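Data card: per-record layout.
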Amino acid sequence: MSFDKNSIYALLSNKHIHFKYTEHRPVYSMEKLDALKMPADAVICKNLFLRNSNGKQHVLLTVPAATPIDLKQLATSLDSSRLSFASAERLEKYLGLQSGLVSPFGLLNDTSKSVIFVSSKNLPPSAIIGIHPNDNTATVWLTFGDLLTLLSELQVEVKLVEM
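The structure for this 163-residue chain is written out next.
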């Protein structure tokens, strides 16, 4: 089953995870999202789909939008070889997503459990984060802790690193 926006809303409801969502026009970049005037108390996150140099390790990185990313430092933190952006083909193969739709909810489509979820140790579990529900016409608001609990229940490998 491929998880679309409505099936993600249903999954969150069935698991009794408190969430809200905002429907909006399609957004393909952080700059376009800034123009939508999202809730002031929420942390908007950016999501990157990465691979190591031999293509055997895949990482979905989710961090607050203002967090600078140093791929060399991240590779060291993960005991990985050099990290770079994964191709659109890999994104489709592992997460069932297209470019511009990268989201932690894509991990719901990773039936082989091949992708590691990575985020910042500095993001508190109580933080309200905003992420796409595998669709860039909406943003889901939930706590970072609830996202981590959901990923853990789904047996996704999670690593929190210094960013």
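Known properties of this structure: The chain has a mean pLDDT of 89. The helical segments are 5-14, 30-34, 71-77, 88-95, 144-153.

See the next section for split statistics.
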